[in-house]
């Protein structure tokens, strides 16, 4: 089964800008997949549609066989999103940022606490659990957003430009974490405009430009083409 199947996906924003022009994309279960493209290519729009933050104009989206139009709740349960921007809940302590998120998925407080502790420990944030989010560095905030996205144990984790503006050491440790998560079975898709990130992490890659997927291949084959 594929983790994500996008067919002829189109998005026209109010005002007429065509951000996606009939995108076809398949990501297999267990993959670590990169969506690479320059700013304005349509990456955030595509991810926004898959995660129900943006309405599509036409086309279909399936996540683990669940159709987004027919069963949005099933799609939501399968998905975790690490957004690019996170300027909300700044006065909440770290642990509450994660537990609040669990509230959207109807999992018990006890289970939420177990998962929150596990991921905050793995991401080196457990000692900061009582710190308000606004006191964290940029790299810590980003790791917190990963823990938050994982609290309901999604089968597919999507990260929008995960390490933009993060220093090299934090980036390496985030990469290590994501590799391990993928080895444990979570399918991962990340968007990036940074080839080295895609190359270091991902097995398969699609290139998106001006709202169209222009090329898609296994990573090694793509590197020979670029
Ligand atoms: P990327 O994530 O690859 O940088 P985006 O999906 O953010 O690309 O943007 C794709 C195109 O859609 C860009 O031309 C952008 O200006 C436009 N766009 C994005 N969001 C909106 C919006 N809310 N309203 C109108 N145009 C938008
Ligand atoms: P690298 O692959 O770069 O050598 P490591 O695999 O050593 O990196 O781990 C890097 C980071 O991942 C560490 O900061 C660690 O906290 C975190 N990490 C350790 N164990 C796990 C795990 N089981 N799952 C996810 N992340 C982990």
Automatic annotation (TrEMBL):
Keyword Transit peptide tagged: no
Keywords: ATP-binding, Nucleotide-binding, Transport
Domain ABC transporter positions: 4-226
One example GO MF annotation: ATP binding
The protein's name: ABC transporter ATP-binding protein
